[in-house]
Write a structure and sequence with these properties.
Blueprint (H helix, E strand, L loop, with lengths): L19 H26 L1 H8 L5 H13 L5 H15 L1 H19 L5 H4 L2 H32 L4 H29 L2 H8 L1 H5 L1 H14 L4 H8 L7 H7 L1 H12 L2 H20 L5 H29 L1 H23 L4 H27 L7 H18 L1 H12 L4 H17 L13
Helix pairs in contact: 1-5, 1-7, 1-8, 1-11, 1-15, 2-3, 3-20, 4-5, 4-7, 4-19, 5-7, 5-11, 7-8, 7-19, 8-16, 8-18, 13-14, 14-19, 15-16, 15-18, 15-19, 15-20, 15-21, 16-17, 16-18, 17-18, 17-21
Membrane topology: Multi-pass membrane protein
Keywords: Cell membrane, Membrane, Symport, Transmembrane, Transmembrane helix, Transport
Subcellular location: Cell membrane
């Protein structure tokens, strides 16, 4: 699928007017993305405590591995959510599906906060946790295809990168909120208090967040692209079947699996796995590990916003390939800084990687939305993206933890990050530039 960048300059497409209704719709699209990432962030940041509460074992490594297994399992259910909710989105509209998904996500996350511990009900505690994680997996699977397509379709030509980057920034802010909340609890509560009840508080916060998100999403309008397709009778009755039986769409779905490799591995290694790694392997305090992550997220929030705007001017390919190959170059040196045992050097290495990662993260979702036509956008985008995320992202903490335990090498996360970055970089060189073209109808 080699292709040259479109010859059309960025200013060839005038910016569409942004109405109040469009702004409300964009905010509604962002809310679900925020809650999705908040849940994942909280789970990763309190993984050490969850290991004790739900998976008690004589060996701490075993408990952590079991906890990350519970983290990884729902990611293999995400493609199911993407296929089902994506098909709904292409048949009945993005807005209706997004209302269902935000309800599922906020309720299942809040229910984790009221689960009894292993000490109280025995094996039913981890079973309950895994079942709720399956519900979250379904909702998370449906959210990217529907949510980011909804944003891209509302954005209008000439600013899709900027608008969809708001969702990427929302993910960083969600993780930052989860990090700061976990850091606050770690600082003010004893270990016993955290294990007894403190870990529940970040999960329970998802309920009021979900209520706010549900209200805002109800005020949103359906995306103009889907509304137009519905009016013209161009909505397909079998979007999933069409996606898999159309050669061009199948090839694009293949790119959707491989292109986000750095996005998947970088997110889970840098932001979800890193706090546990710094504490358990590098012997930082739990608070120091969380603070390093918080600084990365704060810097990354501004970096992804800049990347989204920049991609509207120079294109998606340059940023995707440049950031991926940049991570190949700086991955090992920055990781070396993380392993020096110094908080200051750890911050430097982490921030450099976060900035490089933002070049991919800031434009990935808009790029994937631009690969597909309206009639199959949510299902094709969602299935491809979630397959790649399940394989290379959701299983990353478990895989990395297991390899470290087996080899004794603390360089495993860096090796994983650099290898996936290289593959993502070469894949980015093969995509067609889409920044300066209208969305496919």
């Amino acid at each position: 699928m080699n292709s040259k960048v479109s010859a059309a300059p960025p200013h060839a497409q005038p910016l569409a007017a942004t109405t109040k209704a469009t702004k409300v719709s964009i905010v509604g699209g962002l809310i679900g993305v925020f809650i999705e990432l908040y849940d994942n962030a909280v789970y990763g940041f309190v993984a050490g405590t969850l290991a004790v509460v739900f998976f008690p074992s004589g060996a701490s490594t075993t408990s952590v591995l079991l906890t990350f297994t519970a983290f990884a399992i729902p990611f293999f259910f995400r493609p199911v959510g993407a296929a089902v909710a994506g098909s709904w989105g292409d048949r009945i509209g993005r807005k209706r599906v997004l209302l269902v998904l935000i309800t599922m996500m906020s309720l299942s996350t809040a229910l984790v906060g009221v689960l009894p511990s292993y000490a109280t009900v025995g094996v039913w505690a981890p079973i309950g946790l895994v079942l709720l994680r399956f519900v979250q997996g379904f909702a998370m699977g449906g959210e990217p295809g529907n949510g980011n397509s909804f944003l891209a379709e509302h954005a209008g030509d000439g600013r899709r990168g900027r608008v969809v980057s708001y969702a990427n920034a929302a993910t960083f802010i969600a993780m930052l909120l989860g990090t700061l909340f976990a850091a606050l609890l770690t600082a003010v509560l004893s270990t016993g208090q955290m294990e007894a009840w403190g870990w529940r508080l970040p999960f329970l916060l998802a309920l009021p967040l979900g209520v706010v998100g549900l209200v805002v999403r109800r005020l949103s309008e359906e995306s103009p692209e889907f509304a137009e397709a519905e009016q013209k009778g161009a909505v397909t009755g079998s979007p999933l079947k069409e996606a898999f039986t159309t050669p061009e769409i199948r090839r694009a779905m293949g790119l959707t699996i491989v292109l986000p490799l750095l996005n998947s591995s970088g997110y889970f290694v840098l932001f979800i796995y890193m706090p546990s790694f710094m504490k358990d392997e590098m012997h930082f305090s739990g608070l120091e590990g969380l603070l390093v992550t918080a600084i990365m997220l704060a810097v990354g929030t501004f970096a992804v916003l800049y990347a989204g705007r920049l991609s509207d001017r120079i294109g998606r390919k340059k940023l995707l390939s440049g950031s991926a190959f940049g991570m190949v170059v700086i991955g090992f040196p920055c990781y070396w800084l993380l392993t020096r045992g110094s908080f200051a050097t750890a911050v430097v290495g982490a921030v450099l990687m976060a900035v490089c990662f933002a070049g991919t993260n800031g434009v990935m979702q808009v790029t994937l939305a631009e690969l597909f036509p309206t009639r199959v956008r949510t299902v094709a985008y969602g299935v491809g993206y979630n397959l790649g995320t399940a394989i290379f992202g959701g299983a990353a903490p478990l895989l990395v933890s297991a390899l470290i335990a087996a080899t004794g090498s603390t360089w495993i996360p860096a090796i994983y990050l650099v290898l996936t970055s290289a593959v993502a970089g070469f894949t980015a060189l093969r995509i067609k530039e889409t920044a300066f073209e209208p969305l496919k109808r």
